[in-house]
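User: Please predict the structure of the protein below. I'd like the answer in structure-token form so I can feed it into my own downstream comparison script.

Assistant: Understood. Taking the following sequence of 338 residues as input:
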Amino acid sequence: MNSINIDKPFIAIPMGDPAGIGPEIVVMALCSEKVCEAARPVVVGSCDVMARALTFPGMPAAEIKVIGNPADGDYRPGVINLIDLDNIHVNDYTLGEVSAACGRAAYEYIAKAIELAMDGRADAVATTPINKESLRAAGVLYIGHTEIFGALTGTPDPLTIFEVHGMRIFFLTRHVSLREACDMVTKERIIDYVIRAQKVLRQLGVADGTMAVAGLNPHSGEHGLFGDEEVKEVAPAVEELKKRGFDIEGPIGSDSVFHMALQGRYNSVLSLYHDQGHIATKTLDFYRTISITGGMPILRTSVDHGTAFDVAGKGIASSISMEEAILVAAKYAPGFIR
């Protein structure tokens, strides 16, 4: 083992859907000196699939080292330390296509990575893209990563946080229609969510600073002139939270609150619906927007893009998001509170 890396956290990386870009962005990320200076990355996947990824156009020179446990690895740039589940081979699927075999394999990589983190052999998990249709074809009951992590860690309702350039965003609602999201903006839900979000921040070691709640309507409704959700639900929730001792402000117009957070005025922002926060982060820096799943006994970060079936195997996918997911995991892992 490379002694330079002896104190760096072990980051388990499930390989992702074999038919997507997961394997190739893992290869590129693990050839990054910056990544290997910050962490000891351990891939959970298939040796056959990873070996194929090494042959794609433009891939850096790398070698695969099959290991049984993270502690057995050789953590130098260009060495892919792999826990090989040997559950799929390259002739079992076609690049860029939905496949039950790939969905099943991807689920098994995630489950193994969670196992490594739950028993302390890994300090965090940084996930690669999976395909919801492939999961469904495989009969996997969960729609995505968050649901899998919630089930396998015993966490009923994990929280999603985005981080980019130090700005953190929580989401009051996620994958529901905009109409449903508006109906879910209630005083009770905001209070519950902020309390849980504050626990997540403490898990990550973020003890200081003010949390902001974004407004729902333009200019936060202008005191009810165009929309009364802020008057009836958001402001009363913020006032109640302040009475309970929480350092929180809002509602603050969503056309300015994210900029203010980026400048350091707030340690986090509660976005009231999915696209409100997604647009803010991804417009700022699409590739470096990293998803963190909070409220679980283990730390999980993730790229925030899909399997990109249309470019899989062509050697043109960017590994920036994968590298950043590993770096964010390494940043929080040492102080993470289970």
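That's the full token string. The two ends are 27 Å apart (CA to CA).
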